[in-house]
Amino acid sequence: MAVQPLSQKEIEDRLAELPGWSLDGDKLARSYRLGSHVAAAALVMHIAAVQDELDHHSDLTLGYHTVSLTVHTHSAGGAVTELDFALARRVEDIAPGHGAH
User: Fold this and answer.
1) Would the pTM count as exceeding 0.85?
2) Is the pLDDT of residue 100 over 70?
3) First and final CA of the chain: distance in angstroms?
């Protein structure tokens, strides 16, 4: 069964449950600021493991003390789907302090 794009209302309702996440164009987006570059790199590795487990991958950027990610579902024409929110929730679960900005 194909994954279906979420409506604007469904996206807004789900975003209300994920503080710090936003819609950036046609993608979910979030940045985290960590205490060190090594901590940021470690978070990237944890996110990569979750992405492999879910078989759903984001664009993931490691910066100085920061990690940023954007995600949408390619198989749904680049739309936001429940798969994106599942990944976002899992990332929130592993982020230090549940997403210190």
Assistant:
1) yes
2) no
3) 36
